[in-house]
Specification:
Layout lengths: L1 H19 L2 E4 L3 E7 L2 E6 L2 E4 L5 E8 L3 E10 L5 E12 L4 H9 L4 H20 L4 H4 L3 H19 L1 E13 L1 H80 L5 H18 L11 H25 L1
Antiparallel strand pairs: 1-4, 2-3, 2-5, 6-7, 7-8
Helix pairs in contact: 3-5, 7-8
Length: 315
């Protein structure tokens, strides 16, 4: 009889375990929320747990691991440009305490409602921030947008039993019309910069050419000035040497008892010979008459007397 009774008890326990779920296994990384007659009862943690058959019911299994969700939404800038966002939200349950698990289990009717609330909260925070900025500022404010959303979202998630781990804005795009206008702005800016650079290069080239030309003219003028001075000095020295030579020749002629006009005659004949040798076929007309020669000699004698008087005055 005792063996029959023990066997009966074992069979009853087995039937209750199979039909009523006397023992429940909770997977690692999750917890189970148990209700009794529809009211919260307790939390089952990972491992094998005992449950009152037919009365205790597992209301919800909650993952305590990190979870992610991808969000897509649109915002409008201060200058009425549509901006499309794609974001990745990483979150998890704050801890395993009973109060936190109760918030996670009973704040929302289902997981879809939680996702909708998350999406709308993030979208509202981003829209509120973007509405104060212009379209040309948005791409450079990615980090500021994330910080603004985190500041608003983290408090809401804590009230729901969750903790915000990270928020990433993976994609920020504008409407096709805005993209085309932005491309045109960039292209026009590049063209303007290229024109300005080309103008500056042309100005620099023209300036350098003018400076080089001015320097060249200055150098040529200086060289012409020096050359003119040298030519003048050469002519003066030549005249001085001619005067000295004629003076010495006149002295020697007088010492020899000859007339000084002989010097002039010699110079006249030497000049005629020089014309003939250096003329290179050119026609030179000379007055070969006696009157012409006398006239020329008188002019030369006058020059000689002038040179003599100049030399005497210098002494």
């Amino acid at each position: 009889m005792e063996s029959i009774g023990i066997s009966t008890i074992i069979i009853v326990i087995a039937v209750l375990s199979v039909v009523g779920g006397l023992f429940v296994t909770v997977q690692q990384g999750t917890v189970a929320v148990v209700t009794l007659f529809g009211k919260y009862r307790r939390v089952m943690y990972p491992g094998l747990n005992f449950k009152i058959p037919f009365f205790e019911v597992i209301f919800r299994r909650i993952s305590v691991q990190n979870q992610s969700i991808e969000l897509q939404f649109q915002a409008i800038t201060q200058d009425q440009a549509n901006v499309n966002f794609k974001a990745m939200l990483l979150y998890s349950v704050i801890d395993h305490t009973e109060n936190t698990i109760k918030d996670v289990a009973f704040k929302f009717i289902d997981f879809g409602s939680l996702m909708q609330a998350l999406n709308r909260t993030v979208e509202g925070s981003v829209r509120g921030f973007v509405a104060t900025k212009r379209q040309n500022e948005i791409l450079g404010l990615r980090r500021d947008i994330v910080e603004a959303v985190k500041a608003n979202l983290d408090e809401d998630l804590k009230s729901w039993g969750y903790h915000l781990i990270d928020l990433q804005l993976n994609d920020i795009t504008f409407d096709e019309v805005i993209l085309q206008s932005m491309a045109q702005v960039v292209a026009s800016s590049n063209l303007r910069a290229a024109a300005e650079n080309e103008g500056q290069a042309l100005l620099i080239r023209k300036t350098k050419e003018a400076e080089a030309q001015g320097l060249s003219v200055k150098i040529e003028a200086e060289a012409e000035k020096v050359a003119a001075q040298l030519r003048g000095e050469g002519v003066a020295l030549f005249r001085e040497e001619v005067a000295k030579g004629m003076n010495r020749a006149a002295g020697e002629i007088k010492a020899a008892g000859l007339d000084s006009s002989f010097i002039l005659f010699s110079m006249w004949t030497e000049s005629v010979r020089h014309f003939a040798e250096e003329g290179k076929g050119n026609v030179i007309f000379l007055d070969g008459s006696t009157e012409g020669m006398e006239k020329t000699m008188k002019q030369m004698m006058a020059l000689t007397h002038a040179s003599s008087n100049l030399s005497t005055a210098k002494k």
